[in-house]
């Protein structure tokens, strides 16, 4: 998904890392600034690395990245940065690697750690990470997602626990009671039913209905019902999502569609479609990580922070857990890059982490958005821990500005993140998308029958060929 975590064994001495990093800084200790030391020799080997670059629609993020590139190359003049416009796609990564066209540093998401590691498409950065000065302040919940077999294959950027973003103003305008944060499936059902106005093209909730994100959306309800995607036991992977919990979750989807009539008439919405509908006040609720939908609602939809609330996923019943899919954004280093290129890529990835420049960059982005009459929406889970020294500095910056979106102070006590499946996650999501489409298009679809068929397909096509060591 777009939006789309202990820490770590195995280490090497700082002395060894210093000797490895001669291409970037032969005279300085890598511990001096977290591995981001100044270059001091004009005889350094020239290195070229290609890096992930935000898409054209992310104007502010591109501006920040341009500034980062400028500052990095000033500090490391021997490194040339090439901007890559390739955005990670699990269906393209094999082709990119085979053709030697994958960037040195590319973006990916939480589901892909095991897949990339096992395919040999992510560099083992264990030594680089363990010698990193600030490794102990990295958010372990996020970073753990890219620890595979005790080795580290990625660097966390930010994360989320999937929740529900609610248009509070829509509810209040229709005199619908705003549900509590500690809400349930019944609360979601009743709110969605009351907010829907099919004659005017208004839905109460817009579950994603196409692309793998449809399967991702539904999986939250599977988790809330107490179910799971798969189990790994005795060297085998077995499908579990067609359990009683899965049937219960799919029955809830069917009730939203056919009894409450709360979903869009044209329900085949991908992430962008559903989030766009929310920003345009054509639906009262959307299921996602919060920052993207809230950013669009405030900065494109003209809403105010008080109009939009990020909720945890609803518990299946009162007193239950508000479990949502735990996801995030990561950076991975190309294993085909040379040792010097990998080291430079690691430095670039962590260049602004835990630094005053990083704080200044955040503040500059907030200030620019204020000048543009826009809001700044921070990640709900950041790469650092909130109680770290750096986390407190970032919070102090956020607190200075009235255009920083404030999450409810109570939200964290309800968020219950559950990692995605270890094996064939995207294949599972694609299969569940077909299940969701079947239930949304056929009133008489039998949840148990369609889930049993989907589990059989996933088991035979994907899981039976997996041998877990």
From TrEMBL:
Pfam families: SBP_bac_1 (PF01547). It comes from the Bacteria. Residues 1-28 form the signal peptide. Coiled coil: none annotated. Keywords: Signal. This is ABC transporter substrate-binding protein.
